[in-house]
Design goal:
Elements (H helix, E strand, L loop, with lengths): L1 H6 E6 L6 E6 L5 E6 L7 E3 L2 E7 L4 H10 L3 E2 L5 H20 L3
Antiparallel strand pairs: 1-5, 1-6, 2-3, 4-5
Keywords: Signal
Organism: Kryptolebias marmoratus
Protein name: C-type lectin domain-containing protein
Length: 102
């Protein structure tokens, strides 16, 4: 299990800088601007946070540096629901890797 902590980088974007406004119908003939927050390509959203899972050997310092380069930080868990989300995403990541031809 210790190897997993070293070999997987989990970054999280705390503020979504790529929020895109969209128009939503309000009253007939009127449109209301709505702020739909989305994650960058390849990132997964949970709540108002975006996560990306990088399967590459890195030290803690190198992983944090990588995340900062991406405009993020290493993830910290804020709730049991978020913890379950991260567990599910990790299981999906490793399941997909097992299916890849070697």
């Amino acid at each position: 299990m210790k190897l997993l902590g070293v070999s997987l980088t989990l970054c999280v974007v705390l503020t979504l800088s790529q929020a895109r406004p969209s128009m939503t119908p309000n009253l007939p003939g009127l449109m209301e601007e709505e702020n739909n927050e989305i994650c960058p390509d390849g990132w997964s959203m949970f709540g108002k946070r975006c996560f990306i899972f990088i399967d590459a050997p890195k030290t803690w310092t190198a992983a944090e540096f990588y995340c900062q380069f991406e405009g993020a930080h290493l993830a910290s868990v804020h709730s049991s629901e978020e913890y379950r989300f991260i567990q599910f995403e990790l299981k999906q990541l490793f399941y997909c890797q097992k299916l890849k031809p070697t």
